[in-house]
Amino acid sequence: MTATARFKDKVVIVSGGADGMGAACVRQLAAEGAHVFALDVKPDIAGALAAELNAGGARVEALKADVMDEAELRAAIATVLDRTGGRVDSLIIVAGGSASGLTADIDLAIWDRLYKLNLRSTLVACQAVIPAMRAQGKGSIVTMASISGVRGDPEWAPYNAAKAAILSLTQSLAWEEGGYGIRVNAICPGPIASERMLATISEAELEDYNDATALCRIGRAPELAEAILFLASDQASFITGASLVADGGLTARTSQPTRFYHQRRQGQHRNPA
Ligand SMILES: NC(=O)c1ccc[n+]([C@@H]2O[C@H](COP(=O)([O-])OP(=O)(O)OC[C@H]3O[C@@H](n4cnc5c(N)ncnc54)[C@H](O)[C@@H]3O)[C@@H](O)[C@H]2O)c1
Description:
Order of helices and strands: EHEHEHEHEHEHHHEH
Distance between the termini: 38 Å
CATH superfamily: NAD(P)-binding Rossmann-like Domain
Mean pLDDT: 96
Number of helices: 9
CATH architecture: 3-Layer(aba) Sandwich
Structural class: alpha/beta
Strand order of the largest sheet: 3-2-1-4-5-6-7
Bound molecules: nicotinamide-adenine-dinucleotide
């Protein structure tokens, strides 16, 4: 199967499809001939993306859905099923978010909010598509975890805990739904250059992120879209319950401050800038 044939006429829902990695998925899916539904809390931005892609012959529909709002998220997915005659081939969950603060002081409202935004919304979206996928005897779901769900990070406990729980939810769902032909996998991005990410860090912090990866740079949204679409596509037909780390090698290292790491910061072991 060639990459360009993977999604021809497939119905794919992307939550958080207006911007960042979600928008990159929408763009790639549109290029591969999918009928894409971009769900987002910012329907104007998703709508502008859809209009741009549809002008080039794509089939992209933007729907308003705040994934924090269970009723609105279920209604948006019901609208998709209504428009497609009950068909949905893939669900790609991207919408999510973070907050920071010392765990000892964390406001429980922030803890609850991040669980709702990341974990509960993932469950709701999966529940909303699974009956249709079972009826088809086929479907794929990609959940949005993070390398932050694989390890701990100081000041990010609510985010990391929610992403770790998404990995566990993904594994349970993979087993429960595997007998119906539904695959469920998680993507674990490392630092990715979304507008939001770049807006929250300084130049010096960006350099630290670049240094933290084996590839000496943070990732780009289209690169993550490639990994996500692989998991969603039939190219990954025997992969379920898995988590794919796409982090430029960040978590491949123990973080010991070895001589190599310091030499690389001085300019060795890399191409000149
Ligand atoms: N950027 C990174 O470095 C990184 C790394 C690992 C995981 N992630 C995860 O990837 C996902 C997207 O990250 P990004 O950096 O591309 O983010 P982003 O903020 O650029 O984009 C996320 C998209 O989701 C939408 N969104 C946000 N809250 C929403 C809500 N309540 N309902 C519906 N849509 C909503 C936004 O409008 C936006 O279009 C998040 O789940 C994040 O936790 C990001």
